[in-house]
TrEMBL record:
It comes from Pedobacter miscanthi. SMART domains: HTH_ARAC. GO terms for molecular function: DNA-binding transcription factor activity; sequence-specific DNA binding. This is AraC family transcriptional regulator. Pfam families: AraC_binding (PF02311), HTH_18 (PF12833). Coiled coil: none annotated. Keywords: DNA-binding, Transcription, Transcription regulation. Residues 198-296 form the HTH araC/xylS-type domain. It comes from the Bacteria.
Amino acid sequence: MEQKIIEPRKKIKEGFIGQKRIVLPPNIRKKIVNNPIVKTFYLTAIGHYPKAANHDIERKSGSKDYIFIYCTEGFGYINILGKKLLLSPNSYYIIPKNVSHRYQSHETSPWTIFWAHFSGDIAESIFNRFAEGNLTQVQEVPFVESRIKQFNLIYTLLEQSVDEKDMEIINIKLLNFMSSFIYYKEVNPDVYNTNSISKSILYMKKNLKEKFTVEDLAVQQNLSASHYLRSFKQKTGSSPINYFNQLKIQESCQYLYFSDMSIKEICAELGFSDQYYFSRLFKLITGTSPSRYKKLHKR
């Protein structure tokens, strides 16, 4: 029987259909650095990569700038500081400067990302506010359409002009855009007032083997089902059950990649009594079947 040869995955840095990308030339950066209004925080590059199949960038010496990556669709990975971080829809991460890293889109469900490189006197403080002492923590925020409009406005303004006053407007708007992520909890206290949703998510992660209804999860947090459902969707952009299923599928990917467990055993470990339902759910979320995923990632 002839053995099928699997070609290595192509690595693409850019050139995606529908992509947007602007990198500021050195002469413009020099003007910004000497501008007292925006030298404290300014962008050096910005872009949008939709469904970026085979996107793969590695910087062994890191970047001179901080790199903001916001995922709105699909999945991707960031390898940094000895960990492999997963970016899923409605999550973001800031890569610290001068730190070795590699990021890549998911093989079968590639991410759609909005990204920006930034620097300046307060860039480190902005990063520290994001990280809060945990350098490998991916943050989640609800999807807000106005953020995308704000990003597109910044990009359009940059396309049209790099004059001094226009660059001031662009970078002030960029700081406002970034603040809408980093300070989301502080400016939306109604969503985070009791931290019940964060506790509920932690409860889900500790009980992946269980089967829960919305009512079960609401009772666990001493909330009514309607209030719990509304608050959960405000914070995550997803329903509790869909989110719980995504956590289960993410965990199943770890089992498929790092263990020799069979799909049947993984189902039992994650509370799926129906193996066919698990396979359908897995394909719906990742874009491929569990068996193919295991074959692609066989170590």
